[in-house]
Amino acid sequence: MTRSKNRPKSKMTKKQISEYTFSKEEVVNDLRIAIESRHASLIGRKEVFMGKAKFGIFGDGKEVAQLAMAKFFKEGDFRSGYYRDQTFMFAIDQLTIQEFYAQLYAHTDIEAEPSSGGRCMNSHFSTRSINADGTWKDLINQKNSSADVSTTSGQMPRMVGLAYASKLYRNNPELFDNETAKKFTNKGNEVTFGSIGNASCAEGAFFESINAAGVLQIPMVCAVWDDGYGISVPNEYQMSKNSVSEALKGFQRTKGSNGLEVFTVDGWDYPALVKTYKQAVDIARKEHVPSLIHVVNVTQPQGHSTSGSHERYKSKERLEWELEYDCLKKMKEWAIEEGFISEGEIEVIEKESLEKVKRERKAAWDSFKASMTKEYDEAMELMNRAVSSLPENNEILRLAKELKKTINPIRKDAISVVRKSLRELRNTNLPIKTDMQEWVKKERRENYERYSSHLYSESSAAAKHVKEVLPIYNANSPMVDGREIMQACFDKMFEQNPLVFAIGEDVGKIGDVNQAFADLQDKYGEIRITDTGIRETTILGQGIGAALRGLRPIIEIQYLDYIYYAITALTDDLACLEYRTKGGQKAPLIIRTRGHRLEGVWHSGSPMAALIHSMRGINILVPRNMTRAAGFYNTMLKSDEPALIVECLNGYRLKEKMPENIDEVCTPLGIPEIIKEGEDVTIVTYGSMCRIVMEAADQLAKIGISAEVIDVQSLLPFDTTGIIKASIQKTNRVIFADEDMPGGGTGYMMQQVIDEHKAYEFLDSSPVCVSAMPHRPAYASDGDYFSKPNTEDIFEAAYEIMSEVKPNEYPELY
Ligand SMILES: Cc1ncc(C[n+]2csc(CCOP(=O)(O)OP(=O)(O)O)c2C)c(N)n1
Ligand SMILES: [Mg+2]
Questions:
Q1: Which atom of ligand 1 is nearest to the CA of 230?
Q2: What is the pLDDT of residues 623-642, one digit of tens each?
Q3: Which CATH number do you get for residue 306?
Q4: Is the dihedral of CA 448, 449, 450, 455 positive or negative?
Q5: 3-state class of 296 per DSSP?
Q6: Residue 2 lies in a domain
Q7: In whole angstroms, what separates CA 613 from the centre of its chain?
Q8: What is the pLDDT of residues 781-814, one digit of tens each?
Q9: Which residues form the Transketolase-like pyrimidine-binding domain (predicted)?
Q10: Residues 711 and 611 sit within 8 Å (Cβ to Cβ)
């Protein structure tokens, strides 16, 4: 291979120089992919400016590096990347140009747009891991991409987890012949390929992930596409030393230490990129050592996205440099110089590629338009009939005309006019009214499927299908500490299912801070019950990635208050995973934590509303004791959905009777339990508050007030059978009580019961919420008493209601 004098010197470091022989066919094919990808970007931007798509973000300028990345990506491997990776997806044959455009237009059919069924902005890539019935595909036989998120660095924690799964599969001998594992792994040889933008490396999740990868020693090869900017902000504002690889030098592994391989290579230097990737992937696959490949001098020919133009923030010199160092230009020059291709041949490829991209774009647009035609035609027909049925109504005529002249009508246009027309038909009994009503109902159903399905699993393994199994006790069932119930439950899980593993701060050697995993590391090995660093985001990421690859993680967040450190991974990634892929991926991850009452500002939080409203898509379970908690773990393990299980911090030393069937007990989701029957007032609560409410109920009973106490048990899903409404039908009065702030968890419960379940019709008194003070709880017992709801508060809330009903019997207390 000769080097031209004119071409700048490669940035490859010495260690990167290893042999790789290119074939003509390979180079020509790569060039063709890159050229097609560039045309796809250029035409994509025009589509947005023509108003056919709402927003566009493209991978131009990063084509060549992605060809190199794709070259070493094998079946079973995973990608965790971001919106610049279209060329990679084309090169691994997991995205067609037509599909690329289908996503730009938001085509809702997964056959047309398999990444997200039209739910995600363009350039959010993913492959489908699960079949229509919710069962796993053989991921070991396909090339996989986990589902992108828009948030910069959101892909990083999951990247760690996907790579961590290979480590678990390689190091746990019990999984070598496991039938399930065979769908996901060949002895842990799979590599996870990542990508991130230079500016996004300034995020905490990036540094946490790099550190975790270096500590864990996992097969993760992460590229940084460095175009010098994050939208308009240059590197000097983003990164120490202006360079992520410079900043990360201390992470470079050395003899006898862990860490990463850190490479730097130019984004226009095709052979150097290929060699670098070869080396990094070889190391990852063989040794399970991670790499960071800092791909520098990358360009962005069209600027960041369709939202602006880069002329506003790039200097003339920079723009000129970008033209000169455009990776396509450089790759072509190299290929000609090396004799792989002639200029004439390139011209032919350019022409053919442009034609192909235009063809595929048109096919995507035609198919997108056709998917709307049925609704439009149906609505138009209904409107025409409405016009003739009610000729004197000018509004219907106006709406019909409006629909008729809409250019490129979308579903909203069709449905909106029919809904508005129904208002005009309200006083008639015309057949068109019934037909329109039926049509709107049908549309609601179909559009629910298009835009709102798959928030939770829709398979036969959905958590809601797991049946309740009650605990069985015998005459000799011992009373034990709550933590022993948990320990017995986990012991059985590890024994019975080799795919189960647990990680978290202090869960390994000491068996968690409350010892529910005590002795289990000794019994099942360090690979099954593992200590981690203090890094909640990547603990979550380890769980998500491993669950995406068929394992059954139980990951622990040491205290509920610390969950905020993992909130982005929870809300942006896990909670919307099944939704944003329209049922294409799932991560049945169990998140274990403990919360509610204990001591002080950061150790007794119960921010349930914050979680309920940021984590739709994850089940949120709040057992009042450890037996119910064990039942939830068993339920979730039988299901294919993720859950957050919040154990009661003050429950580990309380005595409970050990069930005989601890490995079988299943607490059902969405089914509250009436823990005390009563007639006068229903008190709805959960978690540690159950004991306080029960104490108050006993005290109320002494003065003749009969409270019915209901433990909600699961907040998401919430009372799916109407038990609370039925109780209110009996008592006609209700109190919602929890430890969250005012308007938080209680506000949510009240909305569910009064608004959603329509229990207001049975109420004879105003519903009452008892919650904590609107600040974090103060320290020590008095801090708890004056910050959180206590027995007296509950007693008095119920008393006050009854005092309004029977003032003579219950005169005001004070
Ligand atoms: C958490 C978060 N913050 C901000 C944004 C808005 N945003 C989207 S892309 C982007 C710039 C990213 O730059 P870089 O990482 O260098 O990637 P590039 O687009 O240059 O390839 C920003 C600020 C976001 N999507 N997510
Ligand atoms: Mg950038």
A1: 13
A2: 999 999 999 999 999 999 99
A3: 3.40.50.970
A4: positive
A5: strand
A6: no
A7: 14
A8: 999 999 999 999 999 999 999 999 999 999 999 8
A9: 480-654
A10: no
Nearest atom in ligand 1 to the alpha carbon of residue 153 is 1
Domain presence at residue 111: yes
Close Cβ partners of 485 (under 8 Å, ≥ 6 residues apart): 626, 627, 629, 630, 656, 658, 659, 662
At residue 11 the predicted structure's pLDDT band, cuts being 50, 70 and 90, is low
Output the pLDDT for position 721: 96
How confident is residue 597, by pLDDT bands cut at 50, 70 and 90?
confident
State whether 709 and 649 are in the same domain. Answer: no
The whole-angstrom separation of Cα 164 and Cα 78 is: 12
Sign of the alpha-carbon torsion through 328, 63, 209, 606? positive
Residues in the chain: 814
197 lines ligand 1 (CB under 6 A): yes
> Rounded distance, CA 737 to CA 750, Å?
10
CB 24 within 8 Å of CB 340: yes
777 near 788, Cβ under 8 Å?
A: yes
Averaged confidence pLDDT in the chain = 96
Q: How far apart are CA 649 and CA 653, in angstroms?
A: 9
User: How far is Cα 710 from Cα 724, in angstroms, rounded to an integer?
Assistant: 7
Domain count, the chain: 4
pLDDT of residue 8: 53
Containing structural domain, residue 113: 14-341
**Six token digits for residue 347:** 């011209």
> Is 6's pLDDT higher than 90?
no
Mutate to test the pocket of ligand 1, among 121, 227, 231, 310 (most ligand atoms within 8 A of CB): 231
| Whether 112 contacts 371, CB under 8 Å | yes
Judge if the beta carbon of residue 169 lies within 6 A of ligand 1. Answer: no
SS3 501: strand
Distance set, CA 775 to CA 6, 295, 559, 560, 564 (Å)? 67, 47, 18, 16, 16
Mutational test site, ligand 1, from 152, 233, 297, max ligand atoms within 8 Å of CB: 152
What is residue 584's predicted lDDT score, i.e. its pLDDT? 98
Segment 410-449, tens digit of pLDDT:
999 999 999 999 999 999 999 999 999 999 999 999 999 9
The residue whose CB lies within 8 Å of the most ligand 1 atoms, and thus the one to mutate among 148, 149, 151, 200, is 200
93: left (phi over 0), alpha (psi -120 to 50) or beta: left
Q: Is the pLDDT of residue 3 over 60?
A: no
Residue 5 has pLDDT above 60, yes or no: no
Q: Residue 717: CA atoms inside 13 Å, Cβ hemisphere, count?
A: 18
Report pLDDT digits (tens) over 285-326.
Answer: 999 999 999 999 999 999 999 998 999 999 999 999 999 999
SS3 content of the chain, % helix, strand, coil (to 5): 45, 10, 40
Q: Does one domain contain both 427 and 468?
A: no
CATH of the domain at 732: 3.40.50.920
> Which of 423, 435, 432, 554 has its CA nearest to residue 501?
554
Q: What is the DSSP letter of 540?
A: H
Residue with CA at minimum distance from ligand 1 atom 17:
197
Q: Which of 62, 117, 65, 125 is nearest to 89 (CA)?
A: 125
Asked if residue 337 and residue 396 are part of one domain, the reply reads no
Same domain membership, residue 259 and residue 157: yes
Q: How confident is the model at residue 598 (pLDDT cuts 50, 70, 90)?
A: confident
Q: Is 44 helix (H, G, I), strand (E, B) or coil?
A: helix
pLDDT for 308 equals 86
Q: Is the CB of 549 under 6 A from ligand 1?
A: no
CA-to-CA separations, 312 to 199, 231, 318, in angstroms, rounded:
18, 11, 12
- Cα(231) to ligand 2 centroid in Å equals 7
Positive or negative, the Cα torsion across 486, 488, 491, 497?
Answer: negative
Furthest-apart CA atoms within the chain: distance in Å: 102
CA of 233 to the centre of ligand 1 (A): 10
